[in-house]
Amino acid sequence: MKYRIMLLSLAIVAIFTTQCKKGKPVTCTQKIGAVGLKLGDTLKITCPANCGGSVWGVKSYTSDSAICAAAIHSGKISKSGGSATLEVVSGQDKYEGSEKNGIKSRSWGKWKSGFIFK
């Protein structure tokens, strides 16, 4: 009985450690509010391949931008997917748009919060 509990405990620790190293899986169109993040939070995320979605900003993205598309735009991951670490930051008065890495981001005015990649 003790042996089974010990094995189960080790399995849980191994799974948790592996998931933490890979990052929290997010969908292609997921936004920071959907993963429960608030100002100052950081999170390592893992995106699937071939993501797109709406993005506003350059280097700092509006909180309603698709996380994975923004990560591709920023160059932190490729279209093949991958992991990156983001941080939730205060909003800006203005967001510029650009086209990078196959993702077009749009310009926007003042927004309440945003995120950057570290």
Give a concise summary.
This protein has 2 helices and 8 strands; from the N terminus they run αββββαββββ.
Secondary structure elements and pairings:
Blueprint: H1 2-22, E1 24-25, E2 42-47, E3 57-58, E4 60-62, H2 67-74, E5 82-90, E6 99-100, E7 103-104, E8 113-117
Describe this structure in words.
By secondary structure, this protein is α+β, with helices and mostly antiparallel strands. Helices cover 25% and strands 26% of the residues. It has two helices and eight strands; from the N terminus they run αββββαββββ. It has helices at residues 2-22, 67-74, and strands at residues 24-25, 42-47, 57-58, 60-62, 82-90, 99-100, 103-104, 113-117. The strands form two sheets. A six-stranded mixed beta sheet has the order 1-2-5-8-4-3, with helices on both faces. Residues 3-21 have low confidence and may be disordered.
